[in-house]
Amino acid sequence: MSLSSRLQLMIGLVLATLLVLTRSQHFADLHQLPAASWAAFFLAGLYIQSRGGLFALLGLTFILDFSVFLTGSYSACFTPAYMMLLPAYASLWLVGRWFGKQQHDYVMFNRFLLLGGAVFIATLGCELLSSGGYYLFSGQFDPSFSEFSSRLVQYYPYSLTSTAFYVTIATLLQSMMSTHSFSHAA
Question: How do residues 79-132 score in pLDDT, each as one tens digit?
Fold first, then answer.
């Protein structure tokens, strides 16, 4: 998918804004929105062609998390395990990037199935890296495979559905924009 630099910048700003608005404890009035961090990284891989988009979102995420840490909240999150967010978020970005480079010459239904599979794989990889990293390296747990498996079953569905929620909205917006531009071209 090839988008103009200006459109990529606009998408990047929207994703950054979404990340700021939905990242835990930054805007208490918006606490009902599901977290968009994972979707932001996946969509950045899909729509923003430069690795700079990934690094900008990683930097923004760190700044947001550190600002909350400075207030005394979520101090348990800043452990050696925090570094696992780098490969976790990068995995989302990489799968989004992979999906964006696929040829989409097939039926729309098959494209949505492939997108669903990509979101499933990306969020599972991110969950394994981020939660697994926290479970193993935070010092908060006595790691066991059975306990981690039960936590994965408990928390992964939320991660998948919140990511899929935003990716679905982005896909619908993209479809509406494509349909709108084709109808004006005719």
Answer: 888 899 999 999 999 999 999 888 666 667 788 889 999 999 999 999 999 988
**Domain assignment present for 66:** yes
Structural contact between residues 162 and 18, judged by C-beta atoms closer than 8 angstroms: no
Identity of residue 173: L
Kindly tell me the burial class for residue 72, based on how many C-beta atoms sit within 10 Å of its own C-beta (0-12, 13-18, 19 or more).
Answer: exposed
Give the Cα separation of 23 and 30 in Å (integer).
Answer: 10
Task: Please indicate, yes or no, whether the overall pTM of this predicted structure exceeds 0.70.
Answer: yes
**Cα separations in angstroms, 164 against 1, 29, 73, 117, 157:** 20, 23, 28, 11, 10
The answer as to whether 77 is a domain residue is yes
Count the Cβ atoms, other than its own, within 10 Å of residue 92. Answer: 31
**Number of folded domains that form the chain:** 1
76, 81, 86, 92: CA torsion to nearest 10:
-90
Domain of 43?
Answer: 5-181
Whether residue 186 is contained in a domain is answered as no
Residue 128 in domain: yes
